[in-house]
Amino acid sequence: MTGRHWLRRDVLMPIVYLILFGAVLYWLYRFLNRQSVLDVDFVQTALIILGVIYALLILITIRHVLSTYDLERYDPGNPESLKRLMKRRRFRLARVPVREDRLLVAIEQALLNSKYQIETASLEIGRVYRRRLPFAGILNRRACERVILLQHEPLNVLIVDQLIKDCIRHIRSRVDCPSKRNVLILLTRMTETQDAASAAAGIVNFLGRFKGGTLCPILLATRQYRLFYPVDRTLLPRTHRLFQNIMLIRLRKLFRNHQTYQTENTR
Q1: Burial of residue 149 (number of CB atoms within 10 Å: 0-12, 13-18, 19+)
Q2: Beta pairing partners, 130
Q3: Which of 13, 124, 214, 232 is deepest in the core (most CB within 10 A)?
Q4: Does residue 73 have a pLDDT over 70?
């Protein structure tokens, strides 16, 4: 869903066509009724077929409109597009202050408790954790999965794009233990909503695939109370989406556990 006229092209026009088809179908029914031919078996069968086709068109149109909204590709240079991104309920967290100093430590500890081990640490991509896959011995004894954790501010769409490229470059370089399933967790404490939204656009627009595996970038904006991730993951293997969903659930739980509920809700 891109461009200036996406609403007219992808939402209004399909609905208009559907209404016109329904109007023609209704007119045809009234016309045949006036001709007293509705009792003819052939006419009844034809009307039933047309009715079924119309019902299918309604379902297809509804699905198209919903998917068009859900899979919008946000423009980091368009303030209106960024406003829509920040309003998406799927990315929202409870607006209660979080103990930011403890959250990063808690995420690291959760990874260690899940048998991840620190592979490396750098200023460019942060800390890299890897875990060998328990059932990989049959096909590849060296196979593993990686989680990259980095706290970074400021952020924008260009920085996010470069971080994703750096992470993919690192993943590809580790031929000693290749990983097809990978997650990048970005934490930021930025207070400027526009900058956070720009960075989030780079996250949600990313399709998640690269030659050799998948990477799910996740942006946890603690001051904006948002957890951003790619919106279109339909082309990813089911096991990869499950791996990513589990990571998202754990992050939401950790964020909730480190919120200071004694502070008055500011929403």
Answers
A1: buried
A2: 117, 146
A3: 214
A4: yes
